[in-house]
Design brief:
mainly alpha, Na+/H+ antiporter like fold, two-stranded antiparallel ribbon, 22 helices, 2 strands, 1% strand
Length: 535
């Protein structure tokens, strides 16, 4: 009963903090971490310990899958070079920098222990990056770059992490050639398994055509990809990411509009709950982290944690700006984008994956002697997460506004291209009506549907000719506001008829669902037109 009460309390807390974050335009995940920290210091409350296996198996696959599913493949492919330089090169660079400082500054840290710490704190967390950037109005290419980096950087960090553990336990001596080969095998095999799973799932989707069943399949997919990859000792993270990207690319062909509608609503709730629980659990780990810290005082460990955080932040800034400088020299590109570069270098938030990796360090070596510096590594990792997640995450919105990157994210070209796409589709529809449908349906039906398409084509053409809020758009806004009033009146009539028990609940729900779809479409149009009016 106690566990159930805790779950209910956490869910209520998630909703409350989400409302606060929305009202004050704050990154929602950071408030959850702070709330978790505040709750963890309340006396006599039960300790909730994060299970690393639960993070890697329960939370990570669906959150990575949803993010990969929604990332733009074209943008990802266009930015593949900088993404790989951040996901692989920066991880190695940061690991070496952290390991060097830890080895020479922190007493008792051997090279293997130092590299283990470096591997833990080097990769920005996918869940943190995606969850925080989702609430910020950043240019699309920056969001794609940060999300793409965080989706694939775990593979390189886990290779270093694994070799460091093997070196500490004496099972294997680190070898650069072996590590490089292992990275290629683990990464390539993970991608191959993910695509294979996605290909099989795509065939299942084509054969079912049942929105409820397909929604459940979409939930199962990331777990299948992750488990198969992990059983074969390759990258489960890359398997999940590649399956998500592949299925997103195939979704227009394999999913019906009913299925896409249901899947989107379902995944919005799943991601909200999982993300909220993950971040509040980070804050709740403070009592566990503080238990049995030996050899050093808490103040000393805090100083070391702050030092390692500074090294990780500086390493990212140095890497990003150095690579851009070299790019300007090699490609003779003099276009300065230092504001975007600074935001990219500042958005290196660490999160639950780093914490879970630290907590997954074994308690003993060969079931005999205690694992050296385990609690110290765990504590320092926790400090790095707090500094990068809370401090950098909270300052990101201010920096974005200060550097005026929100203004840069408003892309008029995208609006024009969207209208051009809509107009092209409508013109193709007119040709289809004249050449195909006219032979299949009566003339009066063709006339009515052609009139409707022509009207939409004319509306779209007017938006192309005048991208600003003009008289035509003002008329359209008033029209859809009027339409929304009509839907609301119909809903009130439906409610009244439902109370009078004239029609069955089944019929009421069916009509209500239609009204929901109409209202959602009209509301989206009103929201778009109002945003154009404000600009």
């Amino acid at each position: 009963m106690l566990k159930l009460e805790i779950v209910i309390t956490l869910l209520a807390l998630l909703v409350g903090l989400y409302s606060i974050a929305t009202k004050f335009k704050l990154p929602y995940p950071i408030l959850l971490v702070i709330a978790g920290l505040a709750i963890s210091i309340i006396p006599k409350l039960p300790t909730i310990q994060l299970n690393p296996n639960m993070v890697f198996l329960i939370f990570l696959p669906p959150l990575l899958y949803e993010a990969a599913y929604n990332i733009s493949w074209h943008n990802f492919k266009r930015l593949k070079r900088p993404i790989l330089l951040l996901a692989v090169g920066l991880v190695v660079f940061t690991t070496v920098g952290v390991a060097t400082i830890a080895h020479y500054i922190i007493p008792g840290f051997t090279w293997p222990l130092s590299f283990l710490l470096g591997a833990l704190v080097s990769p920005p967390d996918a869940i943190a990056a995606i969850s925080i950037t989702k609430y910020l109005k950043l240019p699309k290419h920056i969001v794609t770059l940060l999300e793409g980096e965080s989706l694939i950087n775990d593979a390189s960090a886990l290779i270093i992490y694994r070799y460091a553990l093997l070196s500490i336990t004496g099972s294997q001596v680190f070898n650069l050639n072996d590590a490089s080969l292992a990275f290629m095998i683990v990464s390539g095999s993970g991608v191959f398994i993910g695509i294979a799973v996605a290909y099989a799932i795509g065939h299942i989707h084509r054969g079912i055509e049942n929105p409820t069943a397909e929604t459940i399949i979409s939930l199962i997919t990331p777990f299948v990809a992750y488990l198969i990859a992990e059983l074969l000792d390759v990258s489960g993270v890359l398997a999940v990411v590649s399956s998500g990207i592949f299925l997103a690319w195939q979704s227009p062909e394999i999913l019906s509009f009913e299925t896409r509608f249901k899947i989107k609503g379902f995944w919005d709730i799943v991601v909200f709950l999982l993300t909220g629980i993950v971040f509040i659990m980070i804050g709740l780990q403070l009592p566990t982290i503080l238990e049995d810290v030996n050899d050093f005082t808490i103040l000393s460990l805090i100083r070391y944690g702050l030092l390692i955080s500074l090294v990780a932040i500086i390493a990212r800034i140095a890497w990003v700006f150095t690579l851009y400088t070299l790019s300007m020299v090699i490609r003779k590109n003099r276009h300065t984008r230092w504001r975007e570069l600074f935001i990219i270098s500042w958005a290196g938030m660490r999160g639950v994956v780093s914490l879970a990796g630290a907590m997954a360090i074994p308690l003993t070596i060969n079931h005999d002697s205690p694992f050296p510096m385990r609690k110290e590594i765990l504590f320092i990792t926790f400090i790095v997460i707090l500094i990068t997640l809370v401090f950098q995450g909270l300052t990101l919105p201010f920096l974005i506004r200060r550097l005026k990157l929100e203004e840069l994210s408003i892309n008029d070209t995208d609006k024009i291209n969207e209208n051009n796409l809509r107009y092209t589709i409508l013109q193709n529809s007119l040709n289809y009506i004249d050449n195909k449908l006219s032979q299949k349906f009566p003339p009066h039906v063709i006339l009515k549907i052609r009139t409707l398409v022509c009207q939409r084509a004319e509306d779209t053409k007017n938006k192309i000719d005048n991208n600003n809020m003009g008289e035509h758009d003002l008329y359209r806004l008033q029209f859809y506001e009027c339409e929304m009033e009509m839907w609301m009146h119909q809903r009130q009539s439906l409610i009244q008829l439902h109370k009078e028990d004239i029609y069955s609940d089944e019929i009421i729900r069916k009509v209500e669902q239609d009204l929901d779809i109409y209202s959602m479409r009209t509301h989206a149009t009103i929201k778009l037109l109002r945003s154009r009016k404000q600009k």
